[in-house]
Amino acid sequence: INGHGNNPGVLDVVVRSVGDDFKVFPGIVNSYDLWDKEYIKKNRKSKEGGIGHAGEVETSLMLHLTDHVDMSLADDTDIMKSNLKSCPVDSCSSRQKQLYLSTWYLEDSKCGGAGDPSDAHKKFGKAIQDIAVNKLCEIIEEFYKIQHKLDKKILNR
Predict the structure, then answer these.
(1) Rounded-to-integer distance, Cα 27 and Cα 143, Å
(2) pLDDT, tens digit, for every residue of 44-95?
(3) Does the N terminus or the C terminus of the chain have fewer Cβ atoms within 10 A?
(4) pLDDT digit string (tens) for 5-42?
(5) Nearest-CA neighbor of 89 among 47, 128, 59, 119?
(6) DSSP letters along 42-93, please?
(7) Non-local CB neighbours of 120 within 8 Å, separated by 6+ positions
């Protein structure tokens, strides 16, 4: 399970290489791909640009998972802004992402974030976490069944 936005490309290559070289077939799930984007769009409080690194969703998740979040420090200093139609920086934008650019290219982050954590709340985080965990369980069950079939196929060669 990967939770860092800059890792997927490298991890895709690693999974392919491991499979090709060793005939074992690991899988990778990006935690943010487990989020229900429609649920988030419908229930978010932040405006476009508010969902990114340490923005509304990630902060809501942390509020749900721990009591070590100081919301008195949360503000929209690092809300993400992009006028590029092909590159929305908000991961739950209504615009379709067609171009990847490092968010650091687009923004001058003052606090190391990329979004607006000020609208984060524990209930939102719990809902997102529950949806993500259920999706992950489905993926693991499906992957296990497929993996089991692949293992039999490889052993019979």
Answers:
(1) 8
(2) 999 988 998 899 999 999 999 999 999 999 999 988 877 788 888 788 888 8
(3) C
(4) 889 999 999 999 999 999 888 899 999 999 999 999 99
(5) 47
(6) HH--SPTT-SSTTSHHHHHHHHHH-S---GGG--STT------TT--SSTT-
(7) 55, 56, 57, 59, 60, 62, 63, 69, 71, 74
